[in-house]
Design brief:
The protein is an alpha+beta fold. 30% of the residues lie in helices and 29% in strands. It is a single-pass membrane protein.
Length: 139
Amino acid sequence: MVVLVIIGIASAAVGLSIRPDPLQTLRKDAEGLAQLLQVAQAEARADGRPITWRVTAKGYSFSRREDEGSGIDDFRHDRQLRPRQWQSPTLQVHIEPRQRLVLNAEWINPPLQVVLSDGQNSLRVERSASGQLRVVSQP
């Protein structure tokens, strides 16, 4: 009986320690976003057509005009730029300096910040003028 109690306590302790860290989940969202923004920027440069990033409370997506100009390509069937869900359950997104993020064929772009916040923690995805993207902790 004592052995069963010890096993039960050990199992409970392991179960409690497995709970995901909210900052780690937010960091995964931010790092994934930074990587996909880099992919979308490279695609816009290679193709010559701007790509727009759209965000919702549950996720985000990329889109661009079709070659003929008649429709919108939403990348649904693209392995990398397909629509994605946030891993963080509650996420707020702020884009600075503007509200619409468009990636174009230009090699030099104005600096950009996308602030991701889960209510307790905040991280920034920053783009420098040279196009470098990095994740930075928000003070």
